[in-house]
Amino acid sequence: MDVKLKQCFIAVDDFDKALAFYVDVLGLEIRNDVSFEDMRWVTVGSPLQPDVEIVLEPPAANPDFSPADREAMARLLAKGVLRGVNFTTADCDALYQRVQEAGGDVLQEPMDQPYGVRDCAFRDPAGNMLRFMERREG
């Protein structure tokens, strides 16, 4: 089978803050910006991976969600309990410093893990956890 990841979705509550973080701080590029009815989706991705995209979407972007579902999703996003994305990087410490200097919400400073990576973690402006991993030799 020929199966590859194409897109993943991250809920955001403020597109301006999200884009400032994902584009200006992390260096991802905007690939698409779509509005439909009262919703907006912005697709970003790494220039190093032109075939993989992250879709930034409003919480509860499903048009079939009830008002109660939308409110529940907004509360979960505000608590920071929705899942995020794991990234790889060639230099975890340099990335950590860049995100920290930009005011990123630090969850974990860079540390060596027993499973062969050095990693750190932040929350994006919407509260999603993002982990950045550098593969260690040996």
Topology readout:
Layout: E1 7-11, H1 15-25, E2 29-36, E3 39-45, E4 53-57, H2 67-79, E5 85-88, H3 92-101, E6 105-112, E7 117-123, E8 129-135
Parallel strand pairs: 1-4, 5-8
Antiparallel strand pairs: 2-3, 3-4, 6-7, 7-8
Keywords summarizing the entry:
138 residues; four-stranded mixed β-sheet
Describe this structure in words.
This protein has helices at residues 15-25, 67-79, 92-101, and strands at residues 7-11, 29-36, 39-45, 53-57, 85-88, 105-112, 117-123, 129-135. It has 138 residues and is an alpha/beta fold. It has one domain (7-135): 2,3-Dihydroxybiphenyl 1,2-Dioxygenase, domain 1. The strands form two sheets. The chain has a four-stranded mixed beta sheet, covered by helices on one side. A four-stranded mixed beta sheet has the order 5-8-7-6, covered by helices on one side. Strand 7 and strand 8 (129-135) form a beta hairpin. The longest helix is centred in the middle third of the chain and has 13 residues, at 67-79. The radius of gyration is 16 Å and the shape is globular. The two termini are 31 Å apart. The model has no long low-confidence stretch (mean pLDDT 92).
